[in-house]
Specification:
alpha/beta, 6-stranded mixed sheet, 230 residues, globular, Alpha-Beta Plaits, 4-stranded antiparallel sheet
Length: 230
């Protein structure tokens, strides 16, 4: 089974978490896009939902497919959020942001009762860190933030477009792609990054995902987050 087939399988499996009347977080990226397309089919069949998109690109896709949209201004509690990930470890910690929407993705995830990750088998890892960690920064502080993150042990590159200009997020920020190597303690690194002035957000999603649906061949594995320790 190809990676695209796995993405579609995981995305389709996520629909069982969506109920009539739900407010649904609509993720960004290729696998989340499949989920949006499958949700649109259900909407056409009569499913009553309203979506809150995590990016301008997702909003445009959902609108083109006829999914009614709403905003966080109207609903601060989301029933279920369906999104992809660049890496998922054994504890359901994530690296996200390869598509550049990490800040809005994290806001939507934080407001959701259930945060469902959909991914193909290549995204499952034992330890996070092979995929460079995206860090969203305000342009004013970019040089300073780059220096501070480098001091934490990362090789830092500014994300650029094909013409060499910086990638700009929906919020008007830039993204630093930070190669730390293995990240054995995601919570510790997340705390260190968030404490750097000028960092608007980072792609470590720690203790946020409720369930991960990982497609492997003809199966979709359901992984649930570890229960909190006493």
């Amino acid at each position: 089974m190809s990676a695209d087939d796995e993405k579609m399988a995981a995305a389709r499996a996520s629909l069982r978490f969506v109920q009539d009347g739900d407010i649904v977080g609509l993720g960004s990226g290729s696998t989340a896009s499949y989920a949006i397309k499958f949700l649109a089919e259900r909407v056409q069949e009569g499913l009553n939902i309203r979506g809150i998109p995590t990016s301008a690109k997702t909003a445009a896709l959902a609108e083109s497919l006829g999914i009614p949209l709403t905003t966080l201004d109207k609903f601060q509690e989301i029933n279920v959020d369906i999104d992809g990930a660049d890496e998922v470890d054994t504890h359901l910690n994530l690296i996200k942001g390869g598509g550049g929407a990490l800040l809005r993705e994290k806001v939507i995830a934080s407001a959701s009762r259930k945060f469902v990750i959909v991914a193909d088998s290549s995204k499952q890892v034992s330890v996070l860190g092979k995929f460079p960690l995206p860090v969203e920064v305000i342009p004013f502080a970019q040089a300073l933030v780059t220096k501070k993150i480098s001091a934490l042990g990362a090789a830092v590159k500014t994300r650029q477009l094909k013409d060499g200009t910086p990638y700009v997020t929906d919020e008007g920020h830039h993204i630093l792609d930070c190669s730390f190597g293995e990240i054995p303690d995601p919570a510790r690194l997340a705390h260190a990054l968030q404490n750097i002035p000028g960092v608007a957000g980072h792609g470590l999603f720690v203790d946020m995902a409720s369930v991960a649906l990982i497609a492997k061949g003809n199966q979709v594995l359901e992984l649930n987050r570890d229960p909190p320790t006493a």
